[in-house]
């Protein structure tokens, strides 16, 4: 019987090649659909934020940064499509391979960072009424967004080293301690950038829902709108990020046991769920609509035909501009349901 170590370091296995051509050809067509939908969607959203909505005046700098991250993600899809169409999990060109992994790490981290920041802002607005909201102060400063992007750059360093095979080698033959540490650090970054933010997100969501149910006085439709803001972010995480994270953990477990056949299956599941995670660029506009009614109104009036505008512009546009009040002691505090 072949030992796990021998199987995990099998020199005859090309880990850059796809274990199933049919699976990856199908995934390439899925990504073509994501690209065909995501490119015009994100271009139109960028147009609205820059030329019509003027994000720097509407306290939507964080939303704009999510749009930028999504657009960069969409721009990476043609390279992934090309690789999958040619039966390669990653490009056999090391520069292209590392550049793609760098971009995916950076854009994924940026989307998560700004989504969590929005959720924290909603948390402080609802749960800690009357207290200074430091996140709201950050939202008005474009410099803070630049700092967030710069802080994400060190987390992409493991993607630029030259020690890993086909951009994905943890659990394979380890020649040096440097090799092992680098790959381990990359995996730690991959998991922590999902697990920690998701924990924060769940905490914020639970606190917000409980606060609105117990303390806030107002119409049910207004309360639902406030909850939708944070729940929409939870949905994005649950659909786009969590499945691929679980699949990654399963893949590493199987790989470390040295079972090549099982690893081939786990690789296909992981890559399929990573393709699913790219739908982030299609789901984020829903978050924009819940976070800011102005975005929805401007987008509909700009790109939707007249007959659709009448259906899409519902009475909730007036609801969004109103405020719900809650009484804290002897004070009445205004609670804005969404940002203007």
UniProtKB/TrEMBL annotation:
One Pfam family here: 7tm_1
GO molecular function, one term: G protein-coupled receptor activity
Cited InterPro entries: GPCR_Rhodpsn, GPCR_Rhodpsn_7TM, HCARs
Residue ranges constituting the G-protein coupled receptors family 1 profile domain according to the UniProt record: 41-288
Assigned GO CC terms: membrane
Alphabetic keyword roster: G-protein coupled receptor, Membrane, Receptor, Transducer, Transmembrane, Transmembrane helix
TM ranges: 29-50, 62-81, 101-124, 144-164, 188-210, 226-246
UniProt cross-references to PROSITE patterns, sorted A to Z: G_PROTEIN_RECEP_F1_1 (PS00237), G_PROTEIN_RECEP_F1_2 (PS50262)
Origin superkingdom: Eukaryota
Keyword Transmembrane annotated: yes
Topological type in the membrane: Multi-pass membrane protein
Compartments where found: Membrane
UniProt record similarity statement: Belongs to the G-protein coupled receptor 1 family.
Name this polypeptide is given: Hydroxycarboxylic acid receptor 2-like
Species whose genome carries this gene: Parambassis ranga (Indian glassy fish)
Gene, per the UniProt record: LOC114428682
């Amino acid at each position: 019987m072949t030992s796990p170590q021998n199987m995990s370091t099998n020199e005859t296995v090309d880990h850059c090649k796809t274990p199933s051509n049919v699976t990856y050809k199908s995934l390439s067509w899925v990504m073509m659909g994501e690209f065909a939908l995501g490119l015009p969607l994100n271009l139109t959203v960028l147009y609205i934020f820059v030329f019509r909505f003027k994000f720097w005046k509407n306290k939507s700098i964080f939303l704009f940064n999510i749009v930028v991250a999504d657009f960069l993600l969409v721009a990476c899809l043609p390279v992934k499509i090309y690789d999958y169409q040619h039966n390669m999990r990653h490009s056999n060109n090391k520069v292209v391979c590392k550049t793609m992994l760098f971009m995916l790490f950076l854009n994924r981290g940026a989307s998560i960072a700004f989504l969590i920041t929005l959720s924290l802002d909603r948390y402080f607005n609802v749960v800690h009424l009357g207290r200074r909201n430091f996140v709201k102060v950050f939202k008005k400063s474009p410099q803070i967004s630049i700092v967030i992007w710069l802080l994400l750059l060190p987390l992409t360093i493991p993607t630029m080293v030259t020690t890993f095979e086909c951009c994905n080698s943890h659990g394979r033959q380890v020649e040096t301690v440097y090799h092992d540490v680098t790959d381990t650090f990359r995996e730690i970054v991959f998991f922590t950038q999902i697990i920690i933010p998701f924990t924060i997100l769940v905490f914020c969501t639970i606190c917000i829902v409980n606060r609105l149910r117990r303390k806030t006085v107002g119409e049910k439709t207004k309360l639902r709108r406030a909850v939708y803001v944070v729940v929409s972010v939870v949905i994005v995480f649950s659909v786009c990020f969590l499945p691929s994270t679980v699949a990654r953990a399963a893949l590493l477990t199987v790989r470390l046991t040295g079972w090549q056949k099982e690893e081939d299956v786990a690789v296909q599941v992981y890559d399929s769920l990573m393709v699913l995670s790219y739908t982030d660029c299609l789901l984020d506009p829903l978050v924009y609509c819940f976070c800011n009614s102005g975005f929805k109104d401007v987008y509909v009036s700009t790109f939707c035909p007249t007959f659709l505008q009448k259906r899409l512009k519902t009475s909730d546009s007036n609801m969004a501009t109103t405020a719900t009040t809650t009484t804290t002691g002897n004070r009445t505090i205004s609670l804005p349901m969404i940002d203007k």
